[in-house]
Design brief:
Jelly Rolls, 3 domains, ten-stranded mixed sheet, about 5% helix, signal, hydrolase, hydrolase activity, hydrolyzing O-glycosyl compounds, Glycosyl_Hydrlase_16, Beta-glucanase-like
Length: about 500
């Protein structure tokens, strides 16, 4: 395992400077007790004041001889591509993914004999891959993607761009969102949005209609005291529930909050990490004499903070689908897709319930969405016994035990429903949440304790129910629901 970046936090090394003999004795004692070396900490928080915990499923030290394909999808391996084949004229080629010297190297090469896909890429015009403006340009690159997604955390790489007109990119995508932690280019041929001594960070909104330009916010750090292809540097992004911080070599360079952005804040769902190199024709293209070059990554590390919430926070905050990450991710799953499949599923509303319940944007406790019960119009009555929002099967997995359920509600002025009925399906647990007397036109968090005597089945679901018997006789007020959480009672 690499030890760089956390030497100063290792007490054995510090003691070695002061007293070598004492250190050896202490190390021998600790080794006998089975003590482990301290894991690496974020370069921006070496003393771990944030309480970070490394997530090994989306972290990699690249210490082996080949890429760990239990963690990574390699674009083009076995002829399989996820979402796209690269930005034409350059095409992803799996043989350009190399692990050696403790690093991941994404190579860009000039390969006239490579069998380029003749379909091309729509954003790059009518040329097929391997050609530009009717002339051959046989450039191959590489791209890899984590197989798992994660929600919030601190992601960090130590990397160096290749010295050519080809990008080095560290980015992430999820449902309706994209975070480009950086786009770099070691030697662009045209002055433009990316310079050899700049870092571009951007966030894109892929909610439909996903019409370019999709950029929602971001920044450009220019006039760096180095070219990004000169040497390795550490780049990090701290992605919180309502903020984003960007770091370079441990120094904060950009900070933005949801409070500043409102509904332009789109980073609300789990994301996967991408590392790739692309051809940006508007910044110039490489030629044979300038290749091969490598985009080198020393490590990828993702840390998160412990959370005792047992529900998927994005899904139960009505931001997007729940993910079944034990199922294969569809190769055509673009960020703007709201089509349910085995990998992603959405809240279920029958026809009668959909008349009164809907997920809306712009009114929320957190994120940008909430579930709305729209209330009833003058002289209107609820035509069914109850309206229900139901999670997909398997969206709840709780052992037997005692729990605290919390939910945030917003009640407009008017006559309140008496009770909001929440609960579980298999086995059935009904959790009535009284609404009478709560403050109006304000997000209020309500809590209820409940007990499960048997664990969830594989088909367990979460139910949100508004019953006709709980509504006032005349015109019940509009109700919003957000941030449903379940925590164990200690």
């Amino acid at each position: 395992m690499k030890t760089r970046n956390f030497k100063l936090n290792n007490p054995f090394m510090l003691r070695n400077i002061l007293a070598l003999v004492g250190c050896l004795l202490l190390t021998a004692v600790l080794s006998a007790q089975g003590d482990e070396p301290r894991p690496p900490m974020p370069f921006s928080d070496p003393n771990n004041q944030g309480g970070w915990v490394l997530n090994p499923e989306v972290s990699d030290e690249f210490d082996g001889s080949e890429l760990d394909t239990t963690k990574w999808f390699i674009e083009g391996q076995d002829g399989r591509y996820y979402i796209w084949k690269g930005r034409a004229p350059a095409q992803f080629a799996p043989h350009n993914v190399i692990v050696e010297d403790g690093k991941l190297k994404l190579r860009t090469q000039w390969e006239p004999d490579y069998p380029f896909d003749q379909g091309g890429y729509s954003e790059s015009g009518s040329d097929p891959y391997g050609a530009f403006e009717g002339q051959p340009l046989p450039v191959t690159t590489a791209g890899v993607v984590t197989k798992k997604r994660f929600l919030n955390g601190y992601m960090e790489v130590r990397s160096k761009a290749g010295h050519a007109a080809i990008t080095a990119a560290f980015w992430a995508i999820g449902y309706e969102q994209e975070l480009d932690v950086y786009e770099q280019m070691g030697a662009p041929k045209i002055d433009g949005s990316i310079l050899s001594n700049s870092v571009r960070t951007a966030v894109h909104d892929w909610s439909p209609p996903a019409v370019r330009p999709t950029q929602a916010f971001g920044y450009d750090e220019k006039n760096l005291p180095y070219r990004t292809s000169d040497d390795f540097h550490v780049y990090g992004a701290e992605w919180g529930e309502d903020y984003l911080k960007i770091y370079r070599d441990g120094r904060l360079t950009y900070h933005v909050t949801q409070d500043e952005l409102g509904t332009d804040w789109v980073l609300n769902n789990p994301m996967e990490i991408w590392l790739d190199s692309e051809a940006f024709s508007w910044l110039g293209l490489p030629h044979a004499a300038e290749l091969p070059v490598d985009f080198e990554i020393d490590y990828v590390r993702v840390w998160q903070k412990p959370d005792d919430n047992l529900l998927d926070r994005a899904f139960y905050g009505f931001e997007g689908p729940i993910l079944y990450q034990d199922k294969p991710r569809p190769l055509d799953l673009v960020p703007e897709s709201s089509v349910p499949n085995e990998y992603q599923k959405f809240w279920l509303l029958d026809t009668a319930s959909a008349k009164y319940l809907s997920i809306i944007e712009g009114e929320y406790a957190t994120g940008v969405n909430s579930l709305e019960f729209r209330g009833l119009e003058k002289n209107e009555t609820l035509t069914v016994d109850k309206v229900v929002a139901l999670s997909p099967e398997g969206a709840v997995d709780l052992p037997a035990g005692e729990y605290t359920l919390s939910v945030k509600v917003w009640l407009d002025q008017g006559r309140a429903p008496e009770t909001l009925h929440l609960g579980l399906e298999d086995p059935e647990v009904v959790i009535p949440v009284p609404l009478e007397g709560i403050e109006r036109r304000k997000w209020v968090e309500l809590e209820k304790c409940f007990r499960k005597t048997t664990p969830s089945s594989a088909a367990d679901q979460f139910r949100i129910e508004i019953r006709q018997s709980s509504l006032p006789d005349l015109r019940p007020a509009r109700l919003l629901i957000d941030d449903i959480r379940i925590r164990p009672v200690e």
